[in-house]
Amino acid sequence: MNVTDEYGMNSLLAKCPNCQSESLFCGKIPTKVKKMQDKEVLFCKRCKFITPVEEFKKVLASK
Description:
- It is built from two helices and four strands.
- By secondary structure, it is an alpha+beta fold.
- It has a four-stranded antiparallel beta sheet with strand order 1-2-3-4.
- It is globular, with a radius of gyration of 11 Å.
């Protein structure tokens, strides 16, 4: 799956918080999950970790 071409996601210079792989992308993807519709998400191509960017920011701010 080529997420940069198919979904217009941007590769990030950061490691996945789940698997520590450098295959982390940011952008919008089509989904039926209501809390992720029309929102930017973080997506790891390797382990399939996915979370809305706003929720991830809240987690980082609480640490």
